Amino acid sequence: MLLHLLKKQQVYQPQPGWTGYFLRVLLAVSLMAAMLFYAMGEAQWWLAAGFLDRLVKLSLLVGGGFVLYFAALGLMGFRPRQFARRAA
């Protein structure tokens, strides 16, 4: 509702190319989420595993998600400078 209201009052006007940007980020997030979902394993393992085992596996999941997300964005043509905030 907020987005609709801001557009209607012409307070917010998306820049050209914003839709493509959003779709590429959505694809990268979806790939990362799918990888994390399948790689995390069964809940029973997490409940039975020791602290160190959980810490190692969680670290690998976080690192793997990070790498996959930015690799997917890189393959779609994103560059680090595109994440910089620009002055309006």
For the secondary structure, the number of strands is 0
Radius of gyration over C-alpha positions, nearest whole angstrom: 19 Å
Mean pLDDT: 91
Poorly predicted runs are none
Helix and strand string, N-terminal first? HHHH
Secondary structure: helix percent: 55-70%
The share of residues in extended strands comes to: under 5%
Q: SS-based structural class?
A: mainly alpha
Total number of helical segments? Answer: 4
Distance between the termini: 23 Å
Shape: elongated
The biggest beta sheet is recorded as:
none
Brief summary of the model shown:
By secondary structure, the chain is mainly α.
Explain the overall architecture:
- Helices cover 68% and strands 0% of the residues.
- It is mainly α.
- Helix 2 runs antiparallel to helix 4 (51-75).
- The longest helix is centred in the C-terminal third of the chain and has 25 residues, at 51-75.
- The chain is elongated and about 55 Å long.
- The two termini are 23 Å apart.
- The mean pLDDT is 91.
